[in-house]
Amino acid sequence: MNQDATPPGEEKNQPFRVKDCSLVGISTGLRSQNLREFREALQSVPEGSIYHHFWGRFLEPHFDEPEYNNDFAAWAFHCLHEKSLAERLAVVNPTDHPDIESLRREVLDIVEERLDELEFVPWAMREDLFHFTRSQLLVFDTGRCLSNPEDLPKAVSEMSPGSVFYHFIDARRRTDDRIDDFSAWLSDFKDRHADLTRQLSAIDPYFSSLKELKEALALIFSNYFGVTGQ
Fold first, then answer.
1. pLDDT tens across 109-130, in order?
2. Domain co-membership, 35 together with 119
3. Distance CA 10, CA 4 (A)
4. Are 169 and 85 found together in one domain?
């Protein structure tokens, strides 16, 4: 008898293919010097640009104050000298939104509210214009495949930042249920790892670095599968 044969009535699960990625920024041609121009551009800028200015920092680390963790908030603080606006934009969490249009609406609401409060429109210096950029994600196959969930602790501990971004953050744009690739793969094993997927869903990736995310994921997988020394 073939020991590798799939038992009757069960489908053989597909392997988890570990991917890596890098981010390439592409100009949209839209730029703003003052807050009113920023609002107008924000209304029409491609969705990919909004995604880039919230998530691009993960693969293109910035050295601004960590509390201004998206490009809009950082520009408001550093170039418009609008601390109040920067603080409001900094607490916007893209994971709270079902899609980019909902995220766009929240940012617009904050900007419009601030414009209504101000007597004068804030301007940036000519060299500090906000340039709207969109992203192109370049994806690479690492050649590594995981056959069993038990392989996850070691695999995640060895993943590059790009792999963590691709499988845990960018996956939410690609999967039908807006979940990470690990959870999507584990769902193929029916309910065997339901507790593990619940633990993964509790992680909010936005207010962490990729290094912190990798450590959190590795710890969850190691504890779940009883692995030590990862």
1. 999 999 999 999 999 999 999 9
2. yes
3. 13
4. no
